[in-house]
């Protein structure tokens, strides 16, 4: 088991390496630089700026310098926010994004899971049909449509909740953005679990459990749910990617000072190092989640445990 | 497999396809019947005029006084065009990649699929955003960027199917008759992937439309005066306090189209995966 985990961990290294390299050279290949402003700077100042940020070095030198910094845990200086390291900037924006994303992921798993179980218990029943249609709708309505509609309804129309802003720890502020972010994923998880649970409930070992006279609750939760969770678990990686993408929009609509909004701003400002840092962080997050998924697989289904 | 027969056998599929056809016709033909052009400002009307059934503007106007009905339809044209072209790009790349890897097998297969695995783990949406910001926001680039993101699934599925096809007699026959690998892939493998490709095209189309409107929502997609559903939803979201209709109409069109496409994809998959076909 430990050997397997180590092997998987090692295989993440080339992925992250490709990520850094691709992102680095993509940014540098683009026309326009971080210091192209409204007014042209005197050549001496421009040269001094370039030297300060090592932009005058050949590209491969800059690349090696960046990798060297990474190895020491340094993401480099921000080009736009003078005197700040990228690490500091990310650390400042991370809490808001992280609590939003984690909350949405939890909500998606709990609510989506509950809907999926309810639907799978009586497939093609009235409740299944209604919830199934809603789930299909949920998959089809993107975050950036849900978010403004929720604001329109609950903030502007009914006036129950604030339309935006982010005071840490305030539930009222967190409710609408979390729901807006989670909604498509709730629908997705519900559909996934419904499908796999229906299949699991038809399996021979469930018939055996029924024949033993076990209560329905035990059958569903102890016997059928475990294998049925596998597709949901393997969806965790894509779900995280979806939530990260969605958070860019949700943070914009609700005016939340998080990483997603930062990212778009930084890209528009050509703040190379900040963009690189954020892409790297997101990439690492997704790779890490996929690693957890692999480990969970073995925990849930003994047949998938590495020999 | 007879397409028309599948369509007629499944009522929900038929209903969704017909509804989608209505949306398509409306989007394609509608603007010709409107007295306004897509980017025409009605100086006689109000800014953000409310919608009216009897008045000149059925969906009202946007904050610049442009007719929202015709803008919604024009936006639809662009969203659907981007969707269609990007889907074709991603299918072409994905099928070629998957079929080649699956047919050749061995080292090449391992390397090619390892590339797909690595790319899977990357936060691709962010690369698209970076691409859109850094290079000029040309329509062509939107096609390429979105297509480049979306071919991975298709490659995996095409490879899987090719592995099975490779064992079939007609492939052996083709090899015996002296065709080289590329000819076999092109003439014998790819045509046999058609059914699968149709399903994945139907699944990819809504995803791609979603990505385009996501970019446009962030202001990184199509540029004024051109518009798309995502851009219109973005405009509408800014005006929604005073003019909620400017959000609701484009959002309704976008959501309806995505929903119909998802229903069609799902029913098609059910029809083609049904045992005993």
Provide a brief overview of the structure.
The complex is a heterodimer of chains A (307) and B (277). Chain A is mostly helical and 307 residues long. In chain A, 76% of the residues lie in helices and 0% in strands.
Q: What can you see in these coordinates?
A:
The complex is a heterodimer of chains A (307) and B (277). With 307 residues, chain A is mainly α. Chain A contains 12 helices and no strands. Chain A has a domain at 100-268: Orthogonal Bundle (MetI-like fold). Helices cover 76% and strands 0% of the residues of chain A. Chain A is flat and about 85 Å long. Chain B has helices at 3-9, 11-33, 68-104, 106-120, 124-134, 139-165, 169-176, 181-192, 194-217, 229-239, 245-273. Chain B has one domain: MetI-like (MetI-like fold). The N and C termini of chain B lie close together (8 Å). Chain B is an all-alpha fold and 277 residues long.
Low-pLDDT regions of chain A:
none
Q: Count of DSSP E strands of chain A?
A: 0
Sequence of secondary-structure elements of chain B = HHHHHHHHHHH
Low-confidence stretches of chain B: none
- The number of helical elements of chain B comes to 11
> Whole-number radius of gyration of chain B?
22 Å
**Overall geometry of chain A:** flat
Distance between the termini of chain A: 8 Å
| Proportion of residues in β-strands of chain B | under 5%
CATH architecture of chain B: Orthogonal Bundle
The most extensive contact between chains is: A-B, 48 and 39 residues
CATH class of one domain in chain A: Mainly Alpha
Q: Major β-sheet of chain B, in short?
A: none
Give the number of domains of chain B: 1
User: What is the overall shape of chain B?
Assistant: elongated
Based on secondary structure, the structural category of chain B is mainly alpha
């Amino acid at each position: 088991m430990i050997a397997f985990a180590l092997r998987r961990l090692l295989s993440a290294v080339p992925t992250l390496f490709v990520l850094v390299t691709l992102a680095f050279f993509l940014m540098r290949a683009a026309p326009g630089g971080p210091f192209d402003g409204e007014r042209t700077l005197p050549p001496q100042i421009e040269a001094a700026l370039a030297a300060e940020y090592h932009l005058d070095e050949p590209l491969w030198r800059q690349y090696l310098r960046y990798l060297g910094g990474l190895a020491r845990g340094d993401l480099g200086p921000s080009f736009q926010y003078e005197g700040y390291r990228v690490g500091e900037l990310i650390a400042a924006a991370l809490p808001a994004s992280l609590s939003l994303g984690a909350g949405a992921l939890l909500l998606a798993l709990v609510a989506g899971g509950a809907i999926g179980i309810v639907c799978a218990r009586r497939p093609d029943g009235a409740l299944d049909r209604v919830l199934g249609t809603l789930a299909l709708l949920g998959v089809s309505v993107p975050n950036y449509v849900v978010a403004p509609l929720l604001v329109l309804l609950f903030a502007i129309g009914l006036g129950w909740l604030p339309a935006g802003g982010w005071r840490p720890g305030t539930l009222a502020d967190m409710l609408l953005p979390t729901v807006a972010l989670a909604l498509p994923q709730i629908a997705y998880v519900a559909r996934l679990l419904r499908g796999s649970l229906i299949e699991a409930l038809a399996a021979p070992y469930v018939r055996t459990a029924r024949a033993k006279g076990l209560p329905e609750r035990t059958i569903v939760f102890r016997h059928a749910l475990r294998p049925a969770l596998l597709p949901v678990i393997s969806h965790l990686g894509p779900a995280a990617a979806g939530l990260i993408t969605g958070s860019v929009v949700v943070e914009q609509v609700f005016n939340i000072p998080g990483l997603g909004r930062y990212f778009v701003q930084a890209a528009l400002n050509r703040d190379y190092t900040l963009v690189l840092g954020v892409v790297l962080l997101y990439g690492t997050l997704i790779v890490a989640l996929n690693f957890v998924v692999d480990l969970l697989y073995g925990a849930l289904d003994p047949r998938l445990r590495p020999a | 497999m007879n397409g028309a027969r599948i369509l007629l056998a499944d009522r929900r599929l038929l209903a969704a396809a017909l509804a989608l056809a209505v949306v398509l016709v409306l989007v394609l033909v509608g603007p010709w019947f409107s007295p306004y052009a897509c980017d025409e400002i009605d100086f006689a009307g109000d800014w953000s005029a409310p919608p009216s059934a009897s008045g000149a503007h059925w969906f009202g106007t946007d904050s610049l006084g442009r007719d929202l009905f015709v803008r919604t339809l024009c936006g639809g044209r662009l969203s659907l065009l981007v969707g269609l072209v990007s889907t074709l790009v991603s299918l072409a790349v994905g099928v070629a990649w998957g079929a080649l890897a699956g047919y050749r097998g061995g080292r090449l297969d391992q390397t090619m699929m390892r590339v797909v695995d690595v790319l899977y783990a990357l936060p691709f949406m962010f690369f698209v955003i970076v691409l859109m910001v850094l290079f000029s926001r040309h329509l062509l680039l939107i096609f390429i960027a979105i297509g480049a993101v979306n071919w991975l699934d298709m490659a995996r599925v095409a490879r899987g199917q090719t592995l099975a096809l490779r064992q079939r007699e007609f492939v052996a026959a083709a090899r015996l008759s002296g065709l080289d690998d590329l000819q076999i892939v092109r003439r014998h493998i790819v045509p046999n992937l058609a059914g699968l490709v149709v399903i994945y095209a139907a699944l990819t189309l809504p995803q791609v439309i979603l990505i385009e409107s996501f970019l446009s929502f962030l202001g990184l997609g199509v540029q004024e005066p051109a518009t798309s559903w995502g851009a219109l939803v973005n405009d509408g979201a800014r005006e929604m306090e005073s003019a909620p209709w400017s959000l609701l109409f484009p959002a309704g069109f976008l959501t309806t189209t995505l929903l119909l496409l998802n229903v069609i994809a799902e029913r098609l998959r059910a029809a083609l995966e049904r045992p005993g076909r």
